[in-house]
Write a structure and sequence with these properties.
The complex is a heterodimer.
Chain A (H helix, E strand, L loop, with lengths): L3 E6 L3 H12 L4 E4 L27 H16 L3 E3 L2 E7 L2 E6 L5 E10 L3 E3 L12 E3 H11 L7 E5 L3 H11 L4 E6 L6 H9 L5 H16 L3 E4 L1 E7 L6 E6 L12 E4 L2 E5 L2 E3 L2 H6 L3 E4 L4 E4 L12 E3 L8 H20 L9 H24 L1 H4 L14 E3 L4 E2 H8 L5 H8 L12 H12 L18 E2 H4 L13 H5 L1
Parallel strand pairs in A: 1-2, 1-6, 2-3, 6-19, 8-15, 9-10, 9-15, 10-11
Antiparallel strand pairs in A: 4-5, 5-6, 7-16, 12-13, 13-14, 17-18, 20-21
Helix pairs in contact in A: 1-2, 1-8, 4-6, 5-9, 8-9, 11-12
Chain B lengths: L21 E7 L3 H12 L4 E4 L8 H4 L3 E2 L17 H25 L10 E5 L2 H16 L5 E3 L1 H7 L9 E5 L3 E2 L5 H11 L3 E3 L4 E9 L2 E8 L2 E10 L5 H7 L6 E11 L9 E4 L5 E4 L5 E4 L3 E2 L12 H14 L7 E13 L5 E4 L6 E5 L7 H13 L22
Helix pairs in contact in B: 1-6, 1-9
Chain lengths: 487, 408
């Protein structure tokens, strides 16, 4: 028998929704969350040492929604493991470290991966200067510690988050002076499309209106169709140079302008965190509208790896509501596979109805995304901003010219990695890999979806050798002279 | 280091250019053996084309840790008594030191930084039996002309204060060291090109046919990128050499294993020599970047497709345990990545180098477990191909020596 029926990797909205459903149905469930608190990025809690009055209106609606979801997970009976870092996965097996302790093994009949997303890294001259921060990083500082990161902040990016984040940051007292949206200004036609997709999305439209009001109230200078081409400064950001872009976000020469600023916050959208799913051996496809490389899932969020489901932004960036619906669908699907006749907590009919209900909600959410596609489509020009001496891999300080040089020996991510060390550092290519793939695409003319990412390997997160070391593995099987093994 | 590749002549390295239709010598395999061979052949004036089914340097040559191990190691011993293998070990030790000299010579000749460093190497013993083995092997090494010293007690602690205090002893071999496996092959090929050697990648060999016609004897080699007519063919395909040999009707039983490597985050430099273990699977060194590279023969999954061996958690854990026991301060250093590479060898653990007697014109060059030996085996073969009177290749390396087939 396995340690648990269902292991949920990731304690954000998708993972929590899945765990609540599975646990309430009577299954043995564990949630593995690497942070100290549940809630993921959107429902991020305040850090240790902060006390929040439950009635405090200033915390905002997301905070309260998160609190409810977390409370439901806590009372569901699921084993909640926070500070729990997943180090490796294999078929039905998860290697994890609790609070930095020695790595342990958990076996699971079913695994639901809700790994979330990360900021899309975009490299341009000056992007490594102190004072340049990603939207997710800025949000984490603000949400968990109420830390500001500058006194004159420029926000550059695109999509719904380029509306929501500056508004949220301004609401928290951060002086956002200018907003650069790479996409176009909304037209009447866009607004009409958005309005038609109102069904099931009123709360989102209300949020958007609220954010626009905030941006107006805080007198943030909003510029459409402009992108940051350079950040300049001595030892930190002092100026942000931006230019007008075409529909593919390519800067138009002669349109540069400069803003004095001491911080630049970048929000070019999110990319799914795919490392865990790649290590499971799941199949992938590329869907730039969902953040790039996305795991292939079926209608019940099953991946191509046996007994592994993928939900939420980690399976394609679609936001919190789709994540929660997918979490529920995956849990229901797993329950059905484990208990074909239902459980005391849930009947087969309820399972099927639940899946149908959540699928309908997802369809409604996707209608709204479809309505905003013209405005928020990612433009590949963002990946063409680097100059030859721009650092692409920050961990190993690899510049674009060296990547181009290595590419002459093979338009292959593994080969470029070996020759330049790009992707060998602490982040293991999470930041530079997409940029390199795009460069291969441009230089060698290979379609992005045919460029293999570098070979997936554990550890999924850095882990001390002391907590990996296991002297009992020195069995005869491994400790056998080569010649004996041959005979 | 990669900037050195700009030194050449600033031409593009266009390995995807159309495949030449004719060559004197076709080298199959873009690893350390194939690239060194192409260099030596080109330098000797032979018209040479090197092809690889993927990119250059992507298998064993580019996925090993680049160490030069000269001390007699665990995997070379057939029993707990090194004296049982004296003859073979004497030959191997001599060979390895010559190979090390060649690496240094090549660095000078090629005017590039291949990352060759003589850092010295320590082979540690944890038990009295292991210490006794160190003394036995030290005598063989001395007889073969390799300088090693057994260090114990305070002498060892003074030399290597980072080692665990309860180690029984270690042999120090000042000549051990390493080269850079990631860039050696591209740099060697950069210089080979200056002698007119051509390189083509993404050209997988699908058939080899020996033709005798009114123009003489030649090989018709079909690849995924077209047909090449070659007077002579060299199989330098490492772990895939057996498959290449099958195409020409030649039996070449090779064995391959996947090997696991652990790599840590960079730390302040503390460890200069390489570390090995006489009784456990461990090789450990700190690179110029400050990272610790830890391996030593722990297995990776034996998968050949899709061309990468995936890692066992057990190998990471067992390997880490030995490393931390030998060098305790590693316990709080973080593992940030693992990799695996393939290792190819013949069942008698000797290299296979030379021309097939049964199929004249068909050559094989496999160094056997050998990044260190690669350039030297290539040099031996290049000499014999350039000069029919050259006979430096030891008989034990003969291509048709009747290797038995492996049973796994």
């Amino acid at each position: 028998m396995t340690d648990v029926d269902v292991a949920v990797i990731g304690g954000g909205p998708g993972g929590l929704a899945a765990a609540i459903v599975a646990s309430n149905a009577g299954l043995r469930v564990a949630i593995l969350e690497e942070r100290a608190t549940l809630g993921g990025q959107i429902y991020k809690r305040m850090g240790k040492g902060f006390h929040v009055d439950a009635q405090d209106a200033r915390m905002g609606s997301d905070y309260n929604k998160g609190a409810k979801l977390i409370a439901a997970a806590e009372s569901s009976g699921a084993n909640i493991m926070t500070d729990c870092t997943v180090i490796s996965v294999d078929s039905h097996t998860i290697m994890y470290s609790l609070a930095g302790e020695h790595v342990k093994e958990m076996s699971a009949a079913k695994v639901i991966v809700s790994a979330g997303a990360a900021d899309r890294a975009v490299s341009f001259p000056g992007w490594t200067l102190p004072g340049v921060i990603t939207a997710g990083g800025a949000q984490s500082l603000a949400k968990s510690q109420r830390i500001s990161f500058g006194s004159r902040v420029v926000f550059a990016g695109s999509g719904p988050l380029a509306l929501a984040f500056p508004a949220q940051l301004a609401h928290l007292g951060i002086n956002v002076i200018s907003l650069l949206e790479a996409g176009p200004a909304p037209r009447a036609g866009d607004l009409w499309k958005v309005a038609k997709a109102y069904r099931g999305n009123l709360h989102l439209l209300r949020d958007a209106a609220k954010y626009r009001a905030q941006i107006f109230k805080h007198r943030i200078d909003v510029n459409y169709r402009r992108i940051v081409v350079r950040a300049e400064g001595h030892e930190r950001v002092e100026r942000v140079i931006h230019a007008a872009v075409d529909s593919d976000w390519n800067p138009i020469p002669g349109t540069e302008k400069s803003i004095e600023a001491d911080a630049l916050c970048l929000g070019y959208g999110f990319v799914p965190s795919i490392e865990t799913l790649r290590l499971f051996g799941c199949e992938f496809t590329v869907n730039e509208d969902l953040g790039g490389p996305c795991v292939v899932i079926d209608e019940e969020c099953r991946t191509t790896a046996p007994d592994v489901w993928a939900v939420g932004d980690g399976a394609g960036v679609e936001g919190v509501y789709v994540a929660m619906s997918q979490g529920k669908i995956a849990a229901l699907s797993a329950i059905h596979e484990l208990r074909p006749n239902g459980t005391e907590g849930i009947t087969v009919r309820e399972i099927n109805e639940g899946i149908a209900r959540e699928r309908k909600k997802i369809t409604q959410k996707r209608a709204l995304v479809g309505a905003t596609k013209r405005m928020y489509k990612f433009g590949e020009g963002a990946y063409r901003l680097a100059t030859p001496d721009t650092i692409i891999c920050r961990c190993e300080s690899v510049t674009l010219d060296n990547i181009d040089l290595a590419m002459q020996f093979g338009a292959d991510t593994n080969s470029i990695k070996a020759m330049t060390r790009a992707g060998m550092g602490l982040c293991q290519g999470r930041n530079c890999q997409r940029q390199i793939v795009h460069r291969i695409h441009e230089n060698a003319g290979i379609p992005v979806d045919q460029i293999a990412l570098s070979t997936p390997r554990f550890p999924l997160r850095p882990v001390t050798l002391g907590s990996v070391a296991d002297a009992s593995v020195e069995s005869d099987k491994f400790f056998t002279p080569v010649e004996e093994a041959q005979s | 280091m990669i900037e050195q590749l700009l030194e050449s002549d600033n031409q593009k390295f266009d390995y995807l250019a159309p495949l030449p239709t004719e060559t004197d010598i076709l080298v199959i395999g873009g690893g350390i053996v194939g690239s060194s061979l192409a260099y030596f052949l080109g330098r000797g004036g032979a018209h040479t084309l090197l092809i690889d089914r993927g990119e250059i340097n992507r298998e064993a040559s580019g996925t090993n840790a680049g160490s030069f191990h000269f001390q007699i190691a665990l995997h070379q011993l057939t029993s707990s008594d090194a004296a049982d293998d004296v003859d073979r070990l004497l030959t191997e030790v001599r060979l390895h030191t010559e190979a090390a000299d060649l690496w240094k010579d090549m660095e000078t000749e090629l005017r590039v930084d291949l990352g060759v460093h003589e850092t010295g190497g320590l082979m540690v013993a944890e038990t009295d039996e292991e210490l006794a083995l160190l003394y036995t092997k030290q005598k063989i090494e001395a007889a073969a002309g390799l300088e090693t010293h057994v260090l114990t007690g305070n002498e060892l602690m003074d030399f290597a204060p980072y080692l665990a205090p309860d180690l029984k002893g270690a042999t120090l071999c000042p000549r051990e060291g390493h080269a850079n496996p990631l860039l050696a092959v591209p740099l060697i090929l950069m210089r080979a090109r200056e002698y007119g050697v051509e390189v083509r990648t993404q050209a997988a060999v699908t058939s080899i046919e020996k033709i005798h016609d009114n123009t003489g004897s030649w090989f018709k080699v079909e690849t995924s990128r077209g047909v090449v007519r070659a007077k002579r063919v060299v199989n330098a395909a490492g772990a895939w050499a057996e498959k290449i040999s099958e195409l020409v009707g030649h039996s070449l039983p090779t064995h391959s294993e996947g090997l696991h490597v652990n790599v840590t985050e960079p730390r302040e430099h503390v460890l200069t020599p390489m570390l090995q273990h006489i009784g456990r699977r461990l090789t450990l060194k700190q690179t110029a970047n400050g990272t610790f590279i830890i391996g030593g023969g722990w297995p990776a999954r034996p998968e050949l497709q899709p061309r990468r061996y995936s890692n066992f958690w057990g190998s990471a854990a067992g390997n880490a345990a030995v490393a931390v026991r030998v060098m305790p301060e590693l316990a709080d250093v973080r593992l940030i990545r693992t990799w695996s590479g393939v290792m190819a060898f013949m069942n008698d653990l000797s290299p296979i180098v030379g021309e097939s007697r049964a199929i004249p014109g068909y050559h094989v060059c496999i160094a056997t477990t050998g990044f260190t030996l690669g350039p030297m085996m290539a040099q031996l073969l290049a000499e014999s191909m350039l000069d029919a009177n050259s006979d430096r290749i030891p008989l034990e390396y003969a291509v048709d020596r009747g290797l038995s087939v492996f049973s796994r």
